[in-house]
């Protein structure tokens, strides 16, 4: 299993040591949560901080934009050194255009769906994405309980990808620990995002390792 630690749960006063820890871990990429206080109720970090993180990180950045109309920020996200830009289905008026522009900018394009959005809504964009991010909590905060029907959404997405002959990856975000991660692995998830499970652990390296063994 590929593991994407969510920096939202990191100690921001010690970002350098947290990044050193992640650089020497088995993490597949770094998940960076951007919140605008509009699409979601919370505000997190912006481009100056992400740029600094991009310079220090040896892992590719997976930037999760919880922002209305994220298509306005494609060049800013790319200039932070981002590998994958995730935008919400619910936040894009012209989703096809936004995903195409992300790819044209040289990044991988990810589309994200909220817990209340059915997988079927992705039918018309599945051929132009590199990854689908299924939210297993309502976005905006770390440390929330896992929403169970996310597991069957992974199963349905796996079927859709097979029908389309797509090699897009399935990523899941929110409330992930060893227990929920095991269920998601069985359902066919490729990447697990985890914040509190990793950073609240007394041994974050081992927490990452335990998820990577699923
Ligand atoms: C929630 C964020 C998540 C969050 C996950 O809005 O998108 O990435 O940091 O945190 P945990 O793993 O604590 O649920
Ligand atoms: Zn996230």
TrEMBL record:
Its cofactor is Zn(2+); Fe(2+); a divalent metal cation; Co(2+). InterPro entries: Aldolase_TIM (IPR013785), Ribul_P_3_epim (IPR026019), Ribul_P_3_epim-like (IPR000056), RibuloseP-bd_barrel (IPR011060). Binds 1 divalent metal cation per subunit. NCBIfam families: PRK05581.1-4, rpe. It catalyses: D-ribulose 5-phosphate = D-xylulose 5-phosphate. This is Ribulose-phosphate 3-epimerase. One of its GO terms (molecular function) is metal ion binding. CDD domains: RPE. It is an enzyme of class 5 (isomerase). One of its GO terms (biological process) is pentose-phosphate shunt. PROSITE patterns: RIBUL_P_3_EPIMER_1, RIBUL_P_3_EPIMER_2. Keywords: Carbohydrate metabolism, Cobalt, Isomerase, Manganese, Metal-binding, Zinc. A divalent metal cation binds at residues 31, 33, 64, 173. The keyword Oxidoreductase does not apply. The active site is at 33 (proton acceptor), 173 (proton donor).
């Amino acid at each position: 299993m590929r593991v994407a630690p969510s920096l939202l749960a990191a100690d921001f006063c010690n970002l350098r040591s947290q990044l050193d820890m992640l650089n020497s871990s088995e993490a597949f990429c770094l998940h960076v949560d951007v919140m605008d206080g509009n699409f979601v109720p919370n505000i997190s970090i912006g481009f100056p901080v992400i740029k600094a993180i991009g310079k220090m990180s040896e892992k590719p950045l997976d930037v999760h934009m919880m922002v209305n109309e994220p298509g306005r920020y494609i060049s800013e996200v790319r200039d932070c050194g981002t590998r994958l830009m995730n935008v919400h289905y619910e936040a894009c008026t012209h989703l096809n255009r936004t995903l195409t522009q992300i790819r044209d900018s040289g990044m991988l394009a990810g589309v994200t769906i909220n817990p209340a959005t059915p997988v079927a809504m992705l039918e018309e964009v599945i051929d132009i994405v590199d990854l689908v991010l299924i939210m297993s909590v309502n976005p905006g905060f770390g440390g929330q309980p896992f929403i169970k029907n996310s597991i069957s959404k992974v199963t349905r997405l796996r079927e859709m990808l097979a029908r389309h002959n797509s090699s897009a990856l399935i990523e899941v975000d929110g409330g992930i620990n060893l227990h929920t991660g095991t269920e998601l692995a069985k359902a066919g998830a490729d990447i697990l995002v985890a914040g509190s499970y990793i950073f609240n652990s007394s041994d974050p390296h081992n927490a990452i390792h335990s998820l990577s063994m699923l």
